[in-house]
Design brief:
globular; eleven-stranded mixed beta sheet; six-stranded antiparallel beta sheet; 9 helices; 17 strands; alpha+beta
């Protein structure tokens, strides 16, 4: 992540860490996150996968009990729930990337291959001020998706392999998806009847036409908007290869983005979690709201490496779109 200034921090006296032991295929267990956090003085709450739990309420109870830092070891959806409580309480937030993809952690420069390294922020950390996105009354740290993008999140395979599912299904969904009729309004701009909409907490890179890669920064105070109209699989393949999807509207705005529909509710993907929101859905950016503690020593991927990773994902999606084209025309 570029453009964000950091300041040194002293150790938290009463840190709380919420741990999802099943996230990322049991990554928290493999890296002994709970044990390592307790050794550093943190109180740990283990999520019980056998029963539903209100994690926001758990985090608020931790605040009432004197927590001076809230953290999560889990995926992006769990991160967002607790990040909202940290922001409203003015407490610092710790991200431990123990999920499957952990895009938020990636854009913070954290090592997703070694999630326990994030715990170093408790003893040798710096604080970053980052933005939060809101969709109605719900916080998102990455993005909220509508239409074909949101339908992808409903696919049972999505939770186990988010990127693979997007690459496999996105081209066909853009060509064939039917759902609520959407209208997107951002300031003076209106996009009528897009088939897929992605509103992100800070814009994705301009060389990433499908929103599959990274954000250059998390403190611009801007929402990113990608709105795509349906194309044939052949057009999708050609557009993904060239980086210029026809029918794609890309916006960056500090203003609210309102997504209207011809239904009273719409399915959405909120940081990869399938939820339903009442329409119209007003998305907004809250600049510098979240105080994130990260290790002082962390390695961010180089810009060249980020671009290479983005190209690989887009190329995979383009190849899939080409196969879809042959299936429909062969």
């Amino acid at each position: 992540m570029t453009g964000n200034t950091s300041r040194p921090v002293s150790g938290a006296r009463r840190p709380w860490l919420i741990v999802n032991p099943r996230s990322g295929g049991g990554k928290a267990r493999r890296f002994r996150i709970a044990e390592r956090a307790r050794a550093l003085g943190a109180r740990v709450f283990l999520i019980d996968p056998s029963r539903p739990q209100d994690l926001a309420a758990v985090a608020r109870r931790a605040v009432d009990d004197g927590a001076d830092l809230l953290g999560v070891a889990g995926g992006d959806g769990t991160q967002a729930l607790v990040a909202e409580v940290a922001a409203e309480s003015g407490l610092p937030f710790l991200v431990v990337p123990a999920g499957t993809r952990n895009h938020f952690a990636m854009d913070l420069g954290l090592d997703r291959g070694d999630p326990a390294a994030a715990l170093e922020a408790l003893t040798d950390g710096v604080e970053l001020r980052v933005d939060l996105g809101w969709a109605g009354e719900r916080v998102f740290v990455n993005n909220v998706s509508f239409g074909a993008y949101a339908a992808l999140v409903q696919d049972p395979a999505y939770r186990e392999d988010k990127i693979g599912t997007i690459v496999r299904i996105l081209p066909e969904f853009l060509a064939l998806h039917q759902g609520p009729e959407l209208v997107v309004r951002a300031g003076a701009r209106t996009v009528d009847r897009p088939d897929a909409v992605l509103v992100s907490n800070n814009p994705y890179r301009v060389d990433d036409p499908a929103g599959l890669d990274r954000r250059a920064r998390l403190d611009s105070g801007l929402l990113g908007v990608l709105a795509a109209r349906a194309q044939t699989p052949a057009e999708t393949a050609a557009g993904l290869r060239s980086g210029q999807l026809h029918g794609l509207t890309r916006l960056e705005t500090p203003e609210d983005v309102v997504v209207q529909a011809d239904t009273p509710e719409v399915p959405v993907g909120l940081d990869g979690e399938a939820v339903t929101l009442r329409t119209p859905v007003r998305c907004r950016i809250s600049p510098g709201t979240l105080r994130v503690w990260v290790p002082r020593r962390r390695q961010e991927a180089s810009p060249a490496g980020r671009r290479a990773a983005g190209r690989t994902l887009v190329q995979r999606a383009a190849a899939r779109a080409e196969r879809v084209r042959h299936r429909h025309t062969g």
